[in-house]
Amino acid sequence: MAVILFLNRKGCDIQAARRCVAYKKVNRGMIRADIHSGMSRYQPTLDWIDSQHDRMVGLVSRWAGMNTGSANVAGLEAFTADLVADFEPVGGDCGLVALAPCVSIDSGGVERQRALAPAVRITKRGDAGLRVFLGIHMDTVYGADHPFQSVKQIDANTLNGPGVADAKGGLAVMLVALEALERSGLADGLGWEVLVNTDEEIGSPGSLGLLQQCAKRNHVGLVFEPTHPDGTLVGARGGSGNYTAVIRGKPAHVGRDFGQGRSAIDAMAVMITALSSLNESVAGAVVNVGRVEGGGPLNVVPDLAICRFNVRAVDAAAQGAIEESVERVVDGVRQRDGVTVELHGGWTSPPKPMDGPTGVLFDHVAACGRDLGLSIRWEPTGGVCDGNKLAAAGLATVDSLGPRGGRIHSGDEYLLLDSLTERAKLSALLLMKLATGELAWRGE
Ligand SMILES: [Zn+2]
Questions:
Q1: CA of 395 to the centre of ligand 1 (A)
Q2: How far does residue 159's CA lie from ligand 1's centre (Å)?
Q3: Rounded to the nearest whole angstrom, what is the distance from the C-alpha of residue 64 to the centroid of ligand 1?
């Protein structure tokens, strides 16, 4: 039976409490001491994290004030210089890793390559028996010309700014959690690898290969995307893919040779109708035609149309079904006389199920939450992140270990400041308990 002592923080002898029992703060002014929890070895480190609140707010404010839109290579490189310096306290080997260029189809139907800014990779104790991957992105959805560029504090606990939650707050949580592990004196048995990529908000086309390598080299994945405002983690994630169909027909003068033309726009209209109908016929899947281009002068039969669409699937079965259906729709349009269709793209993020090892990892996180007085729950989402790619490559991953916040991808994006230390303690405790073996990881 656990013996619970409630001590007034001012009145109690904290050192004595630390010597004889583990204790933790349950709310302002109160200390709960639990003789059986075994938290004493972690408590000094958790207390240190509490002392880092102002520093974390300062880091996030400075970082969010620097524009790191995914296409702003100069901005991302400037940010990287700051980031590398800010991560110095964790030690390890730090380097930049070039990303493969981003390939896209322009409005002329031609493939274009665009350079991406390099990612930051830091590794420490890579030969340890248990290795943890920690990742988050530095890029945001707000480009250099976006009106949302500055950070402002809305009230005592709320910061508004571009990327404060998604994901510069997560960067600060990851940094302080790792620093805490390194300061704890418990880190010897645990190796880690950090990857901060620059292209997550465009689907990580250039860092996919790096993420897959990281998944192979490590045993556990921690990703610091924001958690829900109430602290609920993201459990299972659906999958997502992006396609571009380039449809070519045959031009002709509308007045003189209309019958000789083959309209790419007519063919695209048939394709869109068929794609949209998949929303009714394929269970667990969504198709959204998000952008169309094509045509020119109104007296010319259009010979080029471009149709860009996003597909979603709740699980692998729905992914297979929707993939097959999209191919069938495209093949149907290819049967039209004088029309060709090139289909580019595919699944950028496969669905991320709550399978066995991932479930064990979530249970570990929840156990750490209980030690900290946090009730950790999770729920599924249709949104995707790099956690999908890591899971698809075989790494058990919890991917919403960042701070609490909301309205991400909008000018109202906010971060709840008290969650910075709260979530840093959660991840630090998980890391320390994995390092000491108190939480076992047998590669479930
Ligand atoms: Zn994000």
A1: 19
A2: 17
A3: 13
Expressed in angstroms and rounded, the spacing between residue 136 Cα and the centre of ligand 1 is: 7
226 and 248, same domain (yes or no): no
Q: 441: CA distance to ligand 1 center in Å?
A: 27
Structure tokens at 204: 């990580």
- CA-CA distance, 425 to 272, in Å (whole number)? 49
The total of structural domains in the chain comes to 3
Give 174-218 pLDDT, tens digit per residue: 999 999 999 999 999 999 999 999 999 999 999 999 999 999 999
Condensed to tens digits (0 to 9), the pLDDT of residues 58-100 reads 999 999 999 999 999 999 999 999 999 999 999 999 999 999 9
Determine the distance separating the centroid of ligand 1 and the alpha carbon of 225, expressed in angstroms.
Answer: 5
Residue 329 belongs to domain with CATH number? 3.30.70.360
Domain residue limits at 367: 48-238+352-436
Nearest to 99 by CA among 128, 129, 63, 70: 70
Both 56 and 172 in one domain: the answer is yes
Q: How far is the CA of 336 from the centre of ligand 1 (A)?
A: 41
CA of 322 to the centre of ligand 1 (A): 26
CA 441 – CA 434 distance, rounded (Å): 7
Let me know whether 179 and 61 are in one domain.
Answer: yes
With 90 as the cut, is the pLDDT of residue 244 above it?
yes
213 and 122 within one domain: yes
62 and 143 co-located in one domain? yes
Dihedral (C-alpha) 266, 339, 107, 77: value to the nearest 10 degrees?
A: 130
